[in-house]
Amino acid sequence: MPVGSILGRAVRRTEDPSLLTGAAKFVEDIASEGALHAVFVRSILAHARIEGVAASEASTLPGVVGVYVAGDVGLDPMVVSTSVQGAFSRRPPLADGVVRFVGEPIAVVLAESREQALDAAESVMVAYDALPAVADPLMALEAEAPLLFPEAGSNVAREKRSGARGQALDGADVVVRGRFFNQRLAPGPMEPNGMLVVPEGDGLTLWVPCQAPFWIRKDVAAALGLKEEQVRVIAPAVGGGFGAKADTYPEQLVLAALALRLGRPVRYTETRSENMVVMTHGRAQVQDVELDSRRDGRITGLRVRVVADMGAYPMAPYLPTLTREMACGPYMIPKVAFTSTCVVTNTTPIAAYRGAGRPEAAALLERAMDLLAGELGMDPIELRRRNLIPPDDFPHKTVTGSNYDVGNYEATLDLARELAGYEDLRKQQAERRTLGDARQIGIGIGTYVEITAWGSEFGSVEVHQDGTATAITGTSPHGQGHETAFAQVVAGTLGIPFESVKVLHSDTAIVARGDGTMGSRSLQLGGSAIRRASEYVLEKARRVAARLLEASEEDIEAFEGAGLGVAGAPDTAISWTKLAEESDDALAAEVDFDMEERNTFPFGTHVAVVEVDTETGKVELLRHIAVDDCGRILNPMLVDGQVHGGVAQGAAQALFEEVLYEVEGTPLTANLMAYAMPSAADLPSFETAHTETPTPLNPLGAKGIGESGTVGSTPAIQNAVIDALAHLGIRHIDMPLTPERVWRAIRDSRVE
Known about the structure:
Elements: H1 16-21, E1 36-42, E2 48-54, H2 56-59, E3 64-68, H3 70-73, E4 78-79, E5 90-91, E6 98-99, E7 105-111, H4 114-123, E8 125-130, H5 137-140, E9 156-162, E10 174-185, E11 194-200, E12 203-207, H6 213-224, E13 231-234, H7 250-262, E14 266-269, H8 272-278, E15 282-293, E16 299-309, H9 318-325, E17 336-343, H10 358-376, H11 380-387, E18 396-397, E19 403-404, H12 409-420, H13 422-435, E20 439-449, E21 456-463, E22 469-473, H14 482-494, E23 501-504, H15 522-549, E24 556-559, E25 563-566, H16 576-582, E26 587-594, E27 603-613, E28 619-629, H17 636-655, E29 687-690, H18 708-724, H19 739-751
Parallel strand pairs: 1-14, 12-13, 16-17, 22-23, 28-29
Antiparallel strand pairs: 1-7, 2-6, 2-8, 3-7, 4-5, 9-17, 10-15, 11-12, 11-14, 15-16, 18-19, 20-27, 21-22, 21-26, 24-25, 27-28
Helix pairs in contact: 6-7, 9-10, 10-18, 14-15, 17-18
């Protein structure tokens, strides 16, 4: 078997046996003798002054070590973002004087057992002076709206404008307009947030289910006045993150401070209801869109105004910036005017959620494309084809500033059309409409391009004297299969058996540095770092082999599972064990890989086929065809796994999920009884296919895939449902397309 042949193969995940047998250790499974248990007292009002916290009774209950409020902990406010100014930029770890959303922590109880802590927390009495609240971002912009930060003078945390609105109209024959609500979502990972913090010497060890251990180390050290080397962060098995476990949470800073002060371990795990109102939410944009074209369907301009709900603390004002950056999608759009307004409301803060700004861009653009196709009387696929960036126009710079690396957008569109049997589907649709069938078919298209990879990432490789190898990565997986993928990179580069490669990660005492896992960056940055490190190790080993064989280095090559020898003469191969023994220094290398501030741009086309019952509004997703291009594919099984998960989450947004608040900020979806999520029974078997257009920006030729399924699927499914009802005059229905919402749209169309 030639060296490198394992690359591109569907290798089973090495992570799975421990997960399937229950041997994997999550934070809650880490034992720590004598650990105190923490339970937070959280606000029951969305906006109020705190008049007082009565904790005397709770403090005397059995097992209680202490009840702590903001003044007891002594932590400075957290900087929520450097992109906002003044009052907007700070958040107290425990509410200090004012609460701004239901669930905001006010106090924390530490006790010898969780049951004791829960009982004591129930006894803590908070006196509130209720303040007017605002939960709707559009209402938050009104002149008389309650202000979350009165000293700021408004609820606008940040506003950005680019492009001239009037200029985008030049040359337009047709203009379509729409207001689209990209609803608020809860990440809902299987494992909620939590932490175990253990004092050790003059520092701390933190076990955290996170995506970025080094970020948490930095934040904890800064908050507690420690050196970063005094804080060790370990992410053991992590039960999902989806972006929401990338940031440091105030609860984690509070418990780290108390553990250090008391000299005792402290542990904390959210309940599911806590998780639904405390873990950051995603999406939450109101999008006013105008798309202009000539009569032949050629787009002449796009205008967008986004009102982005940031929740109570504007942690992620970069999200609408990403939406703006990707507003052109895969199309030649000569003019774009884009305004984004980040607004604070009395709700859970918004932050990154799978796709982070890019699904929002694809959703607004693909809905507008279908509106334009309807206005022009043109097939939705034909309209898209006429406006796609041609494959010979790369690298391509959009008017919003994105530098697309490489693409062949027509290839994914054509393959998706072929796999779907598009013409036959349209015939079936026409037949049902002619018959007046109560169950109508809809076909939806979602053609997208998204941005992935930023920064640099650490990787190291060492071959030991027993012939095995260890790779260390700065990425921090939470379900993606990094251990499998990175072992493939080492094995494919060095010829060492796959099962002889160990991959280490997610421990700041073992890994030198790293940024973690988010933004679909892991393989192309972390994997490329390991590839480069492996190549450097191979160069060292070739020098050793050349010396031992008295041959030229240029004549030395790797043989799968055998070591290094003279090219064409496998019987000369020297084992890796011998090479490691004979090397003057360690067969090891470490690399920080970056792409020189360039990004990669995966792309694809999704086709959704739905059946809508026009009598009840019920939607059934019959088929979903996903054709994605993530550059060169290292492991098809891992890629399909990421696509499956992404499509499921995209379908969930289109059809099921929505975080709701009543007008005064009380959450209405604070548990999984009220927050609708699909089960496997609600989804079909996804049909996946891929084209491969390798990027020149990294040695693997890889682009991101972790979020692509989410980006392409949501607009395809939304478009499919509306397409099923287009003959009734229905032009748009907002997500989620629940039976009630669809039924009401049908009813209203008949009344009109």
